[in-house]
Write a structure and sequence with these properties.
Largest sheet: 6 strands, parallel
Order of helices and strands: HEHHEEHEEEHHHHEHEHEHHEHHEHE
Number of strands: 12
Distance between the termini: 66 Å
Shape: globular
């Protein structure tokens, strides 16, 4: 036997960084004509939403979420413009492209949030970049920066607001004009999302044609993923927490997921960790039982962790899972469409009913194969979760059309620098 004293955990103070760098950042912001704020995961971790909002309002700056941190700024705020990165907001990208000064608040500026998307190379090439990071090793790691501040996002934002409070900013004169520009870009993107029913590439057009007249096992029709995602967005309850898995439809959901408070969005970031969504949302529900908890998963990723439905049932942790049943490994198939001339390998999935499996595990199950049933199904499942303590799996029957692949750059043809390799395919 030994006697040991276990020290209690301590919360360390994290400050706003050094005066010199803060002064440099304040000077750049004072001279900016079109400042833009990137609100990253550090804003969520530092509980810095209010401070980020105060800085945005002082500057009249559009706020864009870093990749998969859609909960880092309230979506109802007029300066919110949506997420960057894969399947992000065109409004956010177009506004960032106009920036002469960017303040990346609590963001690593990782590649998924800075690479081209929607055919736009939106990262501003000549803008001055102010990067705020609690981890100094991330400063200037991905993008060349003008000012690096090693500090807490909350403390830095508050300090910058204080330093800019009585300063005449070059951007003050154009605040109203820039607000109109922000609104116009957001309105245009919302209109495009409303009208974006189908994917437009040749493969998806073939899949849409193939689905015409095809009936689901329950006699309905296969639904178009974007229509489903829009309907889920409109039916999502207040204060919902959403986790998304790896996969094509889940990633397209980045365009449609909006939140009003932090710690609402749980995504696997840059990792290909299939099966992430369900156990993650079970953990989130356990931490916050008073909030609705929803997991999004495709049928491939779902099969990797769906047995945890039994865990949710067994331990009375009610959650709602939305499974997009499109009978394929969507992300892999899209790469095979775009880069391998539709030479498909191991991409098709032949599944039994996931709703029936959920019932076999002690949960509820709903099959949706009519668009008008998507919203009511989510509302019914949330009601079961919040008022009856029941877990429910919503199985949505989807067409095989697919959004863009994750990384067009990753499978680009290599540039052969050495003469002896130039004839290689």
């Amino acid at each position: 036997q030994i006697k040991a004293e276990i020290p209690q955990p301590q919360r360390l103070d994290r400050g706003p960084g050094g005066d010199q760098r803060l002064n440099e950042a304040a000077e750049l912001l004072a001279q900016a004509k079109f400042p833009v704020i990137i609100s990253g995961g550090g804003v969520v971790m530092a509980d810095a939403i209010a401070e980020c909002q105060a800085l945005a309002e002082r500057l009249g700056a559009p706020v864009v979420n870093s990749y998969l941190h859609n909960d880092s700024f309230p979506a109802s705020h007029p300066l919110w413009c949506g997420p960057l990165g894969y399947q992000g907001s065109k409004a956010a990208m177009k506004l960032l492209a106009r920036a002469d000064v960017v303040i990346a608040l609590g963001s690593r500026l990782g590649p998924f949030g800075t690479l081209p998307q929607h055919g736009m190379d939106y990262w501003p090439k000549t803008a001055k970049i102010i990067q705020v990071e609690a981890d100094h090793t991330n400063l200037g790691l991905v993008k060349k920066i003008s000012v690096g501040i090693n500090g807490d996002a909350k403390a830095v934002a508050a300090e910058l607001v204080k330093r800019l409070a009585d300063v005449k900013l070059d951007s003050d004169a154009t605040k109203a004009q820039r607000a109109e520009t922000i609104k116009a870009e957001k309105d245009a993107w919302e209109k495009e999302l409303d009208e974006w029913t189908h994917e437009r590439d040749a493969y998806s057009l073939d899949m849409i044609e193939e689905a015409k007249g095809e009936r689901t096992p329950t006699g309905g029709t296969y639904l178009h993923p974007r229509q489903v995602l829009r309907a889920l967005e409109k039916a999502m309850p207040a204060r919902a927490m959403v986790s998304t898995d790896i996969g094509n439809i889940n990633s397209v959901a980045n365009s449609y997921l909006r939140f009003e408070e932090p710690r609402s969005f749980f995504a696997p970031m840059s990792f290909g960790n299939c099966g992430y969504a369900l156990p993650t949302i079970i953990g989130a529900k356990l931490a916050c039982p008073d909030r609705p908890a929803v997991a999004y998963a495709g049928d491939g990723a779902w099969a990797m962790s769906m047995v945890e439905i039994m865990t949710a049932v067994r331990h009375d942790i009610p959650v709602t899972a939305v499974v997009f049943h499109n009978r394929q490994w969507g992300a892999e198939k899209k790469n095979q469409v775009d880069f391998y001339n539709r030479r498909f390998v191991a991409g098709e999935l032949d599944n039994e009913s996931f709703a029936a499996m959920a019932k076999a595990m002690g949960a509820e199950g709903i099959v949706v194969d009519r668009l008008e049933d998507v919203g009511p199904a989510l509302q019914k499942a949330i009601d079961m979760q919040m008022n009856e303590g029941k877990t429910c799996v919503i199985e949505i029957m989807c067409t095989r059309e697919l959004g863009d692949p994750f990384r067009r750059d990753a499978l680009a043809k290599p540039v052969r620098m050495l003469e002896k390799y130039k004839d290689y395919v």
